[in-house]
Amino acid sequence: MTDGAEAAEDVLTLLSRTPERVAFEDERESLSYGEVRDLAFRFARALRRLGVAPGHVVALGLPIRARAFPLCYAVNALGAGHLVLPVWLRSLDGQWETALATRPDAVVVDPSAAPPGSCAADLCERLSARYGVPLLSLGPHPGARDLSAEARRESPEPFAVTARPADPRALWLTGGTGGALKWATFAFGARRPPLFRPYEGARGPMRPLVAYRLGPVPNSLAAVTLAAGGTVVTRAGIEPSGLLPTVAAERITEVSLFPRGWRRILTGPEAAVDTPSLRRTSFLGDCVSPALLRLAIRRFGPIVHTRYGQNEAGLLAELTPADYAGRPDRLRTSGRPVPGVDLTVRDRAGRELGTGRQGEIWVRGPGAMSGYWRRPDLTARVVRDGWLRTGDAGALDEDGYLTVLGRLADTVEADDGRVVGPADVEGRLDDHPAVAASAMFTGRPTAGGRTAGGRPHVAVVADPRAVTGRELSRWLYEDTRLTCPEADIHFVPDIPVATSGKTDRRALAAAYG
């Protein structure tokens, strides 16, 4: 089973096995397996009648909700690809032309995520107007044709799914918080492996919570859940403080979140909420300190996983409870590369480095993108002879465990010549009893969105009456051999989080760099 974006045929086939079982739930509706199948084929017929054909790309201005999944399956059933628009961004700032250059063949807007007058609605309407392509909507929207109403008039009868191997099937948005918006493209001919696996043992069906936005993680988890006969619960606008209460109320078995979100949950009053239904929790998307992992394991037990991957490449490495059982030192790692993925660490010239040597992580495997949509210039920078340059710094140990230091652009050289990144700095500072949270950043953001200068700064959430910047500077140096003067250690009320859910190092650099 591959993920839901790449395997619409697989998903649509398995939906017929238990049509009465509930497949998706959100705050508005629940859809059974049979209803998802029927809705997908109704959507597909309506889209085909409105001009969508094999090889086309349909831009989706949708939140993550139950109805979004059958729409994705419908687009792929026609041999077309779906491109997720950044409807969660309140402003595109200087990136309007980047977003408009995607040149889709149709645009679908959900009024609940893109109400008239919003930045999201403006983007959808501009795309439609610029290229003269249909503007469709899931419900009434000014100037749009109601796709839901069109679909109700169509037959739900299944038809054979056909697609050309080289045509795009999924275009996942990446960047936009640390750099330019771009869309990682995956073709129909590439069968991407799943990012998740069913649970071991037979302790009831899967019931994961997928939240925040459409992307490869929700789509993969949805496909694995449906294959196992489970139910996917979606929430678009949930706050970290409401996550565990939702888990308890909805009997959720699995939830994944960025480290900053988990920290807010695990250090807040909601950490006391009883969640007996949970069978797997995951950290993903950013560096996680051993201190935070230990806190999560104490709270949830040995069901905590760390997943390292990228939208461009899928899941690359995973740290499981079996990996760290009796080996607390492995909490500093992201686990071992997953089956099917070739992963190496290389120097700036592209030469492979030995065990323990630090450099850039390069990967190769069926989960890697074919390139960035309509950006051959960016593709040429990161795709080399079938290998993908991740832009992350890391090292492999003698047992094959990968330590991810952070983005290569965020690393600096310590006094002993080692490369030090956010994972090292934040891991050390988070171990200090007076520090509640920390973040490393370097320099100020440039016009292109990158930081520059290579001078390390640190933001800490701590009471300056309990610990001084000089004491933290010494504490950091003892473990990392990184010199960070007291003047570059900044006491802050909180660590800012970008709309992606990751640490907003650009905001810290702009304020304190």
From TrEMBL:
Gene Ontology MF, one: acid-thiol ligase activity
UniProt-listed Pfam families: AMP-binding
EC number(s) given by UniProt: 6.2.1.-
Top-level enzyme category: ligase
Domain AMP-dependent synthetase/ligase positions: 16-182, 224-373
Keyword Ligase: yes
InterPro entries from the UniProt entry: AMP-bd_C_sf (IPR045851), AMP-dep_synth/lig_dom (IPR000873), ANL_N_sf (IPR042099), ATP-dep_AMP-bd_enzyme (IPR050237)
Keywords per UniProt: Ligase
Protein name, entry field: Fatty-acyl-CoA synthase
Protein source organism: Streptomyces eurocidicus (Streptoverticillium eurocidicus)
